[in-house]
What we know:
By secondary structure, the chain is an alpha/beta fold. The chain is 48% helix and 11% strand. A five-stranded mixed beta sheet has the order 3-2-1-4-5. β2 (85-92) and β3 (98-102) form a beta hairpin. α1 packs across α7. The longest helix has 26 residues, at 158-183. It is globular and about 65 Å long. The N and C termini lie far apart (65 Å).
Amino acid sequence: MDGPMAQQTVSRCLQEVTTALNAPHILRKHIRFPQNRNERNLIKQKFYDKYGLPAVVGCIDCSHVAIVRPSEHEERYFNRKHFHSINTQVICDSDLLITNVDASYGGATHDAYIWRECEIRNHLEGLQDETVYLLGDSGYALREHMMTPVDNAVENSPEGRYNYLQKRVRCTIERTFGVLKGRWRCLLAARELHYCPETAGKIILACCVLHNMCIRAGIEGPELTEEEHQSERTRQVPFETAASSTQALQAGRRARNSLIQMLERNRR
């Protein structure tokens, strides 16, 4: 096509493509958390082969995608870094594939709250006779199925070595965000999606679908430069340490201690 494309045409095409990629059957096909033991075992094995950490089915974190000021419920989207955003929760596997995404919460919502409301949490809690971990930072509450760092661990102690490995594996989610935003730069926090929150959320989901298509097809995407990574870090909202109920926290500590002991035995 010769000459520039009219803005109305671009907007119509964007809406049509975004709507198509948000169709339920498309989302189910391309963004899918493992639903049975065999699927989980495949992901666990890949994490173990790469990093030596057993039973991991994913890494989880949230990332803020900037939007223009909404006309309604503006306070839900105004985050602690003083800009409006969608707080997007993503779970990924060791290949940087996105297995779950939630782009329905405003930037004022804490990461831990989004996870508490997530259907994947209920799914993992309902598993019987199977050891399964997600890896999260200290913004998430320690649970039997959510492994977080040990606070104030001494370097080169069993807990310190666990923290080092946990963080190394957890960097997978940071790399996933880097590739996702490097390929679809409208998601960078230094930019803004000029759409209402609902449409912005659909654009985020569409980008995640396309991201997975590219990963599965072996199409390499440009990761962010160090300068862009630094810009992202300064725009992201720092996590707040999650509160935790005593009984659930104790169960999480027992699970984490068992994992640390296993890792120590494997060192010998």
